[in-house]
Amino acid sequence: MNDKIRELFPAAKNYTYLNSAAVAPLSTIAVEAVASQLRDVSENGSANFNEWVATKNRAREVIAQMLNVKSEQIAFMRNTSDGFSTVANGLKWRAGDNIVTFAKEFPANFYAWRRIRDDFGVELRLCSERNGRIDLEEFLGLIDTNTKLVSISAVQYGSGFCADLERIGQAARKVGALFAVDIIQAFGTMPFDLPAQMIDIAAGASHKWLCSPEGCGILYLSDKARERIKPTLVGWISVEDAWDFEDVEQKYKPNALAWETGTSCSSLFYGLEQSAKLLLNTGAEKIKNYLEDLTDYLCEILPMENYEIVSSRKAGEKSQIVCIKYGGNLSPTQIAEHLQREQIIVSPRNDRIRIAPHFFNNQNDIEKLVKNLPS
Fold first, then answer.
1. Which domain holds residue 354?
2. 0.85 exceeded by pTM
3. Distance in angstroms (rounded) separating the CA atoms of residues 76 and 256
């Protein structure tokens, strides 16, 4: 996006790094923030404990601002899977209910619902992939008055397909279903307004497009979702006055904070705060437009005689993830290994090669990738 941002990411100097959909590199400011908290513990023990908590809460506020929600609607988990599992465990299910989702969701947004299917006899309705896309009419056609929850990724990990969240949210709300979204492959690359998109539940994590340390899972619960979902994994900070150790019959917090169980890795939130502030200050719309231009450029110069673009590049469906197929006899893994020998990092995903630039990448990175793709 600009040289100042690129300079913050050593991995962008060491590699042609096009793999933020797997793990994004950390900036120097995030690394220093993490190290500062660890030094604090080393030098001062628990003397500055209140500042650790304050930093976590500041990180929560930045995340909430980026999603246009209230900070008390954000709970920190370990990862995306924890978020969806705690939602699945906390809802009341009955035979006849159904869940609508996409057949090729990342497993973090599948296994929680599969367990509900297996344990409660709930129908799990799966919309198929159609040429790298989700047919929205087909997906919406699976929703009916027995649908208890609709779940989808904002951007698909295996195709880069970007869902029309507001339209799906409208359909879910019409039948009284909760709408859950896996935001991990989109958060940090595009604007979100969860209330306007009618999203009741959002789960994600820090280590992809947020350019933050692994271990900071994010769970958003709307007020409606909080009313319907019980916290099932609870601990000493889940209650209204966590420091009143004598009152063990007190109420749980009335918001998403009831889902936080106890102490966590404080240093990670130092990194998350700084990374999230960098993204917020850069601007989600600006990042989205930049990455759209960068991936459009990739698609323009890709040698189409040897490669097929799987990802939809239609307006409203394209994202910062581009998946391609090779027409030759090398597997995606072999191609990724070949590229890594040239210091180019991408991911093989199923029968595809996934290319995922972020705001520290530039056109030179795209040109180097294309130049080194096997012919």
1. 3-18+283-372
2. yes
3. 9
